[in-house]
Design brief:
The chain is α/β, with parallel strands linked by helices. The chain has five helices and six strands, in the order βαβαβαβαββα. Strands 1, 2, 3, 4, 5 and 6 form a six-stranded parallel sheet that branches. It binds flavin mononucleotide. This is NADPH-dependent FMN reductase. GO terms for molecular function: FMN binding; oxidoreductase activity.
């Protein structure tokens, strides 16, 4: 059997009841056996400050190690004011430095945005892609994942109950697994 590949799933919300976090957890159950998902939350990640590059806080080191050891990165994020939430932008900045030592460099990646609204976080999704071009992350292009109407997707226990979304996520993560595998060659 081919060895299992590992993906860091970076969640762009700190909220306990975050839909993005629930989506990330749902994906772990839907991923094919060839792909293991490590859900990375950003609670406690210190703000990036270039003065600390020589003596990085332990939480930066942990975050960078988790992403560095992964074969791929998958971002699951809400949209804040038509862009990327500050905590996620901060994580990208932390992972990208010191200059020349970005933990994202060369990895395959994916972006899933979501919203209770109809547009599914399109603005955040594409602002994030702008940073990922510079960080040399090869982002899966199709299917695009702008998940609108997320508000009725989960029950009170956090279980995914929206069948159409389950089917979409299953197809997405299968395609993503193939994308990640392709980049190992
Ligand atoms: C500061 C802030 C800005 C927001 N801006 C947007 C926005 O631009 N577009 C959108 O669809 N939803 C926006 N929302 C609503 C979020 O989509 C909603 O709160 C969502 O549940 C947050 O994601 P989470 O459930 O993963 O925490 C905003 C929410 C906050 C708190």
């Amino acid at each position: 059997m081919a060895s299992q590949l590992n993906t860091a799933v970076i969640v762009g919300s700190l909220r306990k009841e975050s839909f993005s976090l629930k989506l990330a957890r749902a994906l772990t159950a839907l991923a094919p056996p060839s792909l293991q998902l490590d859900v990375v939350t950003l609670n406690g990640l210190s703000l990036y400050n270039q003065d600390l590059d020589a003596t990085p806080p332990a939480d930066w080191v942990d975050f960078r190690d988790r992403v560095r050891k992964a074969d791929a990165v998958l971002f699951v994020t809400p949209e804040y004011n038509r862009s990327v939430p500050g905590v996620l932008k901060n994580a990208i900045d932390v992972g990208s430095r010191p200059y020349g030592q970005s933990v994202f460099n060369g990895k395959p990646g994916g972006v899933i945005s979501n919203s209770p609204g109809a547009l599914g976080g399109f603005g955040a999704n594409h602002h994030l892609r702008q940073s990922l071009v510079f960080l040399n992350v090869s982002v899966l292009q199709q299917p695009e994942a702008y998940i609108g109407g997320i508000g009725d997707a989960f029950d009170e226990k956090g279980e995914l109950v929206k069948t159409s979304l389950r089917e979409f996520l299953e197809a997405y993560i299968k395609t993503f697994a193939a994308w990640v595998a392709r980049h190992q060659q």
